[in-house]
Design brief:
heterodimer, A: alpha+beta, Thiol Ester Dehydrase, Chain A, 6-stranded antiparallel beta sheet, two-stranded antiparallel sheet, about 35% strand, B: Thiol Ester Dehydrase, Chain A, two-stranded antiparallel ribbon
Chain lengths: ~160, ~150
C-alpha cells in the first residue's frame, strides 16, 4: 500500500506555494498531484524555454528548476509540520535529450528524512517515469531559516 | 554544422555577447548578460529580476534558476573557448548551494578543468558581493562529439 502524505495540509499548502513562486510561474510549472508521497509536476514546451535554438531542445536549466521544485514538494510530503527548507545540493544526469514540442513531467520522492537533512531523487520524462530523460538527486536543509515560507507564519 | 554553431562563431568573432544571449531563448528569459575582460576571461551576470525569485519571504533567487544560470554560463564558456562544428551536450551537472541568492546581481565565472577528445569538465562559481564568498559552486561534464 502506498503511504499517504505525513501531513496532507502541509503538502497541500507547500505544493501550492512552490509552484506559485515567481520563477516557477514564469516557467509555467503545474502541480498535477501526489501519488502517495511522490508529487508530479508538468511543464509545457514553449519557445521561451529553449536552450539550443538549433534544434528546439529545452534548456537544461528548466530540468534543474523542475527537479528542484518537485523534490522540494516531495520533502513536504514527509514533513509532520510546516518548516522552511532550502536546497543544499543537486545533481542532474541528462539521460537523453528532451523532445522539442513535448511537455516534460517530473516525479520526485523524499527517500530519507533525517533530523537536519532531507534526501530526494527525481525523474523527468515525457510518457512514463520508466523512460526517463533526466534523473536528479538532491539534499535539502531542514529549518533553513526562521522566516516562514508562507505568509502569516503558517510555514 | 547547425545554424546555431555557425551563428555563435560569427557573433563571437564580432564580440557581440548580447546577440549570443538573444539567440538562446531561456538565457534571454532569465536576463543573462556576459562580457569578455582584457584577459579574455568571460564574466557572466544575472541582474536581479523579480521573475527569478524562489523564496518570496526572504526574498531569495530560485535555486533552479541559479542552476540554469550556471549551466548556461558553462555552455557558453565552453563554446567560446573551442572550435567545433558541434554544440557540446551536457551529460551531468552538479551544484552545491552555499549561501542564499540575495535579490541583487549574481555573477559567475567558469574554468575548463579538462578538455579531452570526447568529454570536457567545467567548474563554475557564482557570487554576489564578494568572489571569496560564493553563493554556489557547480561542475558539469559535456560531451564534445556525438561520433
Amino acid at each position: 500500500m502506498t503511504p499517504a502524505p505525513v501531513n496532507p495540509a502541509v503538502l497541500e499548502a507547500m505544493s501550492a506555494l512552490f509552484v506559485s513562486l515567481p520563477h516557477c510561474e514564469t516557467l509555467g510549472f503545474q502541480y498535477l498531484g501526489t501519488d502517495g508521497r511522490k508529487p508530479v509536476l508538468k511543464v509545457e514546451w514553449r519557445e521561451a524555454l529553449v536552450g539550443n535554438p538549433g534544434n528546439g531542445v529545452v534548456h537544461g536549466g528548466i530540468i534543474t528548476s523542475l527537479v528542484d521544485t518537485t523534490s522540494a514538494i516531495a520533502v513536504t510530503a514527509q514533513l509532520p509540520d510546516f518548516e522552511t527548507i532550502a536546497t543544499l545540493d543537486l545533481r542532474i544526469d541528462y539521460l537523453k535529450a528532451a523532445t522539442p514540442g513535448r511537455a516534460i513531467f517530473c516525479r520526485a520522492e523524499c527517500y530519507r528524512l533525517a533530523t537536519q537533512i532531507a534526501f530526494t531523487r527525481a525523474v523527468c520524462y515525457h510518457d512514463r517515469p520508466e523512460e526517463p530523460i533526466a534523473h536528479g538527486v538532491a539534499t535539502f536543509m531542514r529549518e533553513s531559516s526562521p522566516i516562514p515560507m508562507l505568509e502569516g507564519g503558517a510555514a | 554544422m547547425s545554424d546555431f554553431i555557425g551563428r555563435f562563431a560569427r557573433l563571437r568573432e564580432a564580440g557581440d555577447c548580447a546577440a549570443i544571449i538573444e539567440a538562446i531563448p531561456y538565457a534571454r528569459l532569465m536576463g543573462v548578460e556576459f562580457c569578455e575582460d582584457e584577459d579574455g576571461h568571460l564574466l557572466f551576470r544575472l541582474p536581479f529580476n523579480p521573475r527569478n525569485v524562489g523564496n518570496t519571504r526572504l526574498p531569495a533567487l530560485h535555486g533552479g534558476l541559479i542552476g540554469g544560470f550556471l549551466e548556461n554560463a558553462a555552455l557558453i564558456h565552453l563554446m567560446w573557448n573551442r572550435e567545433s562544428q558541434e554544440a557540446p551536450k551536457i551529460v551531468d551537472f552538479s551544484l552545491d548551494y552555499l549561501r542564499p541568492g540575495k535579490p541583487q546581481t549574481l555573477f559567475a565565472r567558469c574554468e575548463i578543468t579538462k578538455q579531452g577528445k570526447r568529454v570536457a569538465h567545467v567548474l563554475i562559481e557564482a557570487w554576489q558581493d564578494d568572489p571569496a564568498r560564493p553563493v554556489a559552486v557547480a561542475r558539469a561534464h559535456f560531451l564534445l562529439s556525438t561520433d
